[in-house]
Design a protein that fits this description.
about 55% strand, 14-stranded antiparallel beta sheet, mainly beta, about 160 residues
Amino acid sequence: MDTYGYVVATSSPSRRTDLTYDAVGRTLTAKVYDVATLRLSTTTTYLGDGAVASVAFDGTGSVPSEGTYTLTYTYDAMGRPDQTKRAATVLTDNGWNVTDTLASRADGSAGTSAFTYDWANRELTATSPVATGTTTTAYRLDGLIATRIAGNGETATLTYDP
């Protein structure tokens, strides 16, 4: 730990991670070593409001090499996550409801997922192009999940301790 109480390194017999922080305690860099060989490093930048602006990855030390790339993040006028990009390629693109709930998420080549909510902003349905059909959730009067029915018809009924 450093003088501010932040963890600056973690280690095990075969792995070590070194961390650095900015003046307000946000992680700036993380370097992961396999014994003594640097395998992965990340550098994170932040916007003025504290939201993550970008994360640069360097995996050239890994076997096989994972190369280097940077993810950038944009936010809408309300500060909600808008897009995640790698270079000019949009990886995710979020759409929001006026109730501040996630309406849709486009996941590049995987397609677009859609979500609906009840009057209490609890998720009712989730439709995904990679899952079969629509997952539906029902709630108990106390707000806890009662059942969840997957798109393939499998039902999970939840019970809780009193």
